[in-house]
Amino acid sequence: MDNIMQNTRTKVFTLILASSLWACTKTVTNTSNPETVSLVKKWETEGNLLTPESVLYDRGNKVIYVSNINGQAGDKDGNGSIGRVDLNGKIEQAEWVKGLDAPKGMGLHKGMLYVADLTKVVVIDTKTGQKVQDIELPGAQFLNDITVAADGSVYVSDSSGKKVYLVKDNVASVYMESDQLVRPNGLLAHEGKLYLVDMQPGIFYQIDGNTKSLNKVAEGLTSGDGIVPVGKGDFIVSNWNGEINYLFANGQVKKLLDTKEAKVNAADIDFIPERNLVLVPTFFNNKVMAYELKR
After folding, report:
1. Which parts of the chain register pLDDT below 50?
2. What are the tens digits of pLDDT across the range 215-247?
3. CATH code where residue 258 lies
4. Which PROSITE patterns has this protein been placed in (predicted)?
5. Domain co-membership, 26 together with 167
6. What is the pTM of this model?
7. DSSP assignment of 252-267
8. Same domain, yes or no: 104 and 173
9. Long-range contacts for 35-39 (Cβ within 8 Å, ≥24 apart)?
10. What pLDDT score does 35 carry?
């Protein structure tokens, strides 16, 4: 009996040890190494865009959309546009869709391109390039970023109004607002969660879907603009002044790129996973630049 009990204990211990080692190995495999994460420049657009603020990759059409402010970021002047760039950085159409005011963040759902245009969301059919709808957001002051959830819910940040709007079935409402926010900008709906970066304090939040409370994930992301998921629970967050920062799943932040001295901005970025390509609109530099993410 003692031998049987001893053998049983040995087998149980061996199983526990093996499970623990497997779990540890899995954790290491799924964690990015801060020492090896870097960016390598691949291309930049030739010829000028018009104050590019945001970029968005359309996988279905194999094209990159660029929102061009072409003027002051807060002016209703009709000078704004959406451009198209191919995956090698060639400008296909600098002004594919014209007549917008100060277009910024963009999102896609079922062939429709949603654009944050100062106080309204403009809906564009990507097949025809035609504007199909303007959705006014009541009380909006300075709409900035857009993200679209898997169910088609469109979330829009209002940097001056300290709130986030929800557009569902083409009906707009205030999703959340908080005096805790200073200048909310970047938004990301990802894997059932909604993330936001507040520019001035540089805090990266997860918004609780039930209470709408702000749960801090990380800080040190001053002037945070665009947010993209890059796998392994990690994100890349741009700093509008000219930085690209890597946010690890554990909250650690590593600066990958700094172009502030060159006066090259890094506005609302996007990421092409199949190419490991980070797309950076450079605002006043009037170009889009692409960097390969190395890990």
Report:
1. 1-29
2. 999 999 999 999 999 999 999 999 999 999 999
3. 2.120.10.30
4. EF_HAND_1
5. no
6. 0.89
7. -EEEEEE-TTTT----
8. yes
9. 36/294, 36/295, 37/246, 37/254, 37/256, 37/293, 37/294, 37/295, 38/256, 38/293, 38/294, 39/244, 39/256, 39/257, 39/278, 39/291, 39/292, 39/293, 39/294
10. 85
